[in-house]
Amino acid sequence: MFKKILIANRGEIACRVIRTAQRMGIATVAVYSDADAEALHVRMADEAVPIGPAPSGESYLKIERIVEACRMTGAEAVHPGYGFLSENAAFATALATAGVAFIGPGPEAIAAMGDKIQSKRLARDAGVSSVPGQLAVIPDADSAVKIARDIGYPVMIKASAGGGGKGMRIAASDEETREGFRSAASEAKSSFADDRIFIEKYIEEPRHIEIQVLGDTFGNLVYLGERECSIQRRHQKVIEEAPSPFLDNDTRKAMGRQAVALARAVGYRSAGTVEFIVDRDRNFYFLEMNTRLQVEHPVTELVTGLDLVELMIRIAAGDPLPFTQKDVRLEGWAIEARIYAEDPSRNFLPSTGRLIRYRPPAGAGLRLDTGVFEGAEISVYYDPMIAKLVASGPDRDTAIERLRGALDSFYVAGVQHNIAFLAAVAAKPRFRAGALSTDFIAEEFRGGVTPPSGFVEPDRVILLAAALAHRRIRERETATDGKLAGAHIEIAERSVVLLDGRPYPVSLRPEDDAYRIAIGEEICSAATDWQPGEVLLQIRVGERVATVQIERQAGAAFRLVHGGVVRRAQVLAPRAAQLLALMPEKQASDTSRLLLSPMPGLLSSVAVRQGQEVKAGEPLAVVEAMKMENILRAERDGRVARIRANPGDSLAVDQVILEFE
Prior knowledge:
- Helix content is 28%, strand content 33%.
- The protein is α+β, with helices and mostly antiparallel strands.
- The strands form nine sheets. An eight-stranded antiparallel β-sheet has the order 14-13-10-11-12-15-22-20, with helices on both faces. Strands 27-26-25-24-31-30-29-28 form an eight-stranded antiparallel β-sheet, sandwiched between helices. The protein has a five-stranded parallel β-sheet with strand order 3-2-1-4-5.
- Strand 24 (494-499) and strand 25 form a beta hairpin.
């Protein structure tokens, strides 16, 4: 067994690998860029080696610096994690040349599966079901249109070297194919230095279901069940679970056997994942093979009881698999939610900054994989993941309830994040029913991520929280003021709670160890131990306990979050509420004539010039952030009056790019 390994990665996956290595008694070496000098993975490792400036192209993607770090520290093996160099055949070869083991598959398998065109040809030869499409490299946009017409719309335009949702576009017309070809090729070139593109049929109402495979150097191969990864946004996974609520045993076995057949065809060793698209009739088609540990591997670990990182390390050290296919058992259910620093209200654009507060939940059936801590910085240079929250239980309903409760209790401040959005997804009846597809988010959030316009079930808890918080604050104030001579303050029983401006009359008074609360015709007894200043307010109503995130805001208001619903609440005396209703509303500034940058990023290009007439929907500019190209389009017809930013400029959120007449 290895005595020392180096982790060629950062963030939560580096921390994840370090934990297992430490449990195995293996010393660990971290590498870090200038931006990560104080990162959690650096603190956790036994040794840490600086490898360059913040941009990943000058640090984490520099093969020679990783190899040199191995030489300096005496590391015998390298775990690549996911992303960065994890699927780079040249990296595995360079390590082998240096006499360092690569904790992953051989370079031949990486190269074969990393080329999406070659991998689909290999899959067909191995008898694996494949999507109809054109597997030759497409030279230009005109050729792409011709091929798309032959296949039949809609089609998926994909980068041969793509992954992580980059270099992928869906097209339903000739115009969309031309634009999709150009943008996918450009994005792929900047992300992978490879702009080769191919096209295949887009399967409608698709599910994304993948099979975890594991092989050793002795030719033993097994599959460890499936993961349902259909909840996606921009082709990037958001929530994953194991097992799938859709597969039956026969389909599971058929997919597993085909995944093993493909792995055997390329002499695969270590952990890998074969991804399939599955249609409504459980027909499945090969998508790609990821020759690395997946982000979502924890759900497989929780239902199999296996540590995939440990198995990868043992296989790389020459150990045989300690079990066979008949020994694999799936027990229970696990669901993972990816916590990202991104702003759902701005179309999920990345958010950067310092984690001023970071309070993850803990409890039965919860696992947290993270690479941050309170005070850590979410950098513009890397993927904005904060953590992976995994809930498990004996069945799917239990796992969902644990996930929902944990999301309500997961408090983050300092950056925008997607926690409330994840809770909103988990609260959808369609999610509970397991009626998933890769179109789930687009279909369930058609108007974007905005607060519900009417009263919804979580508002009942939010109303209670607002009333209770106001009462507890008044009790604190009364206790303080009551110490002054002659002071006596009565706390009014009746008030009005405004939720996003909508009034709800409330009556609240103490009763035994709780409070009797009447909201309209509904009356309940609720208890809380909340104290002003705390960010989580727990409400006990009978046997049920609900958690609400609470922040005090200006104007005697609260920001309250529960069940994926975010509300601004004010608690006023009835007369004050009447007077407030008579006040004119403050009007927001008119920015309709401005094109604003929706995120911090780099202005890649401006597609228009001063004085040009544009039509609604036409592209105006491209902003690049986190290596993703974001096309900004005209919301209405107009004429460009002035260009306010130039290609190559670094943009702040809401910085003006251009203005219209």
